[in-house]
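Final report, Chapter 2: Outcomes

The project's central promise was a pipeline that accepts a single protein chain and returns its three-dimensional structure in a standardized token representation, suitable for archiving and comparison. That pipeline is now operational. To close this chapter, we reproduce one record exactly as it appears in the project archive, with the input sequence first and the structure output second.
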Amino acid sequence: MMFRNGYGTAVLSIINNHYRYEIRKRNTVLKKKERWSNIMFKALVVLPLTLSFLCLGINLYFDSSGIAFTGLIFLFTSYIGTILQHLFILFANWQDFIKVLSKPFSLIIHNTKVTVRYDALLYKALLYFPIQELKYISNRMKTERNTLNSKVSLLIGGIDKIGIFPGLVAVLISLNQISNSGASSWAQPIAYASIILYIFGFLFQNAIIRADEKIQLIDFIIDVKSCHVNEPDR
């Protein structure tokens, strides 16, 4: 095998261009849904979270229970907005909601159909590359994927498994503490840190999921090409 300069970059360029095409096509098909989802994220998550941290910074100087309480209200709004946005993405309309409740398996089938629809183009584009080059890119992508996953896990810990609700509970505990005694609660740092780590982890988990999809497709192409190579002449 000739390990030339830039070996495998053509494969990576095709994968990257296909990903951009897939995102662009999905945004065209789901343009209205994506637009409202982005508006909801900015209005109910980013804006309240920014105002909450602003109140937190102001409270460091003035030490006011009223400012701290207001900041926690904004933080609570950001938590609720995060949950609502996920629900909005999952259920585009009430018919999808009813369908998932009655037939949960249909959601998996629907998402698989969407992925397969775009995978066909990438399959055709990568099918003509040598097996050795595809194996090399698959191994490199697995290494980079595992490295990113390890770094994200070190930062966010187990928040990807326990979800957003412990942080939401910490907000409620902090609100109750301030309203009753006017003092900050031990749970307040947890409330602020949890949502930041959750948003950070969500963004990078999405990248890891997309990498897994492409790796699985490359490995499938390798298996197909290997079977053709090993077929006896008839």
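Archive annotation: The mean pLDDT is 80.
This record, like all others produced under the grant, will remain available to the consortium after the project formally closes.
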